[in-house]
Amino acid sequence: xxxxxxxxxxxxxxxxxxxxxxxxWSALAGALVALLAGVVHLTDIVTVWDIVWDATFTFVxxxxxxxxxDKAGFFGWAALHVARLGGGRGRRLFxxxxxxxAVISALFANDGAALLLTPIVIAILLRLEFTPRQSLAFIIxxxxxxxxxxxxxxxxxxxxxxxxxxxxxGFARYALVxxxxxxxxxxxxxxxxxxxxxxxxxxTYDTEDLPAPMSAIEDRLVFYxxxxxxxxxxxxxxxxxxxxxxxxxxxxxxxxxLMAIAARVGMRERAHMSVLAIVKQAPWQxxxxxxxxxxxxxxxxxAGLTAYGSALLGWLGEQGTLIATVGTGFVSAIVASIMNNMxxxxxxxxxxxxxxxxxxxRELMVYANVIGNDLGPKLTPxxxxxxxxxxHVLAEKDYRISWGQYMKIGLMITPPVLLVTLIALAxxxxxxxx
Length: 434
Description:
The chain is 77% helix and 0% strand. By secondary structure, the chain is mainly α. Helix 1 packs across helix 12 and helix 13 runs parallel beside helix 15. The longest helix has 38 residues, at 90-127. The two termini are 41 Å apart.
């Protein structure tokens, strides 16, 4: 009960975010209380740090890359291209915005898609003179696809990296399993969003007032460097896998290279942006949050939550692979929506690791836990930090979505998408084999 109380109070402060006390310091304070109370021990700090450090610094590096590209106009250029390719037809534009969000989420992580693409989409919708109701359909689509399309690569979601590192899953193997599953997830998301909002999508829109996509580019050198850099980064992930080089080292090297290009290091040309200011914008609080929140959750595991989870997953594993996959995914989703997907991921991983399962069922459950923690947080606003930040961005743009309104949308969209995606995993993984 003490471990649970410490977790609840810590989560309240993380969500509340009192002025001057960010998510990192709130989580770290909770970890300190857990340590002083004997819920966790000094040796647990080393264990937890070993689990989270690679994922955390990979996430920070990806956000720095995303912020630099955003400053250079990369995402604005892409969004304007999509708006023009829509050809003035709203029902063509809607799926194209969803697909754009899916691509950005895959390459730049779900947080990048939600936080960087959303303001750009809002700006374009205002220029197209969409009504607030019409705009809401596109805004919801952008926010939801950011998470439902964050399955394909290890780097598409912090959850993916933590899980893959914990179970020693390589970049290539992960992509081989999850790329086809992600296609199903994106398709299901598009279908559900379309059914929910097709009546709100305008039949036509005027493209005459849209600026040319190239006008969005603020730094041409950074912009043109993005394409080869992203290609080389993906190749590097594959090439360095067998060398067991941490994924954060590869991503960090790419971030440093892009920072050097943006700062015009060794060039006579003047920089178009302040790289130092961008680095300061990076989510450094997530480093403190990762170690702090995971320590608090590890304390819950020490107090017996892992044992309960293992017993439940062990029972699910005896019901056949389909039930085990779907059951694990939905349990993870419910836990993530209640306590946030970051701690939920560790709880699920610990429970699977301690459960008695066959090799096939165990692998299915590992990926189902990822899917549940990637998609499940959309059930509630507190399910992921990305959602909380996304709602904050919308509020700054005068698009306010209440928690009740959000949960109504989340309960309508998430369960069918989650179910179809988990079934796809249960069908695909046995076909793929080990």
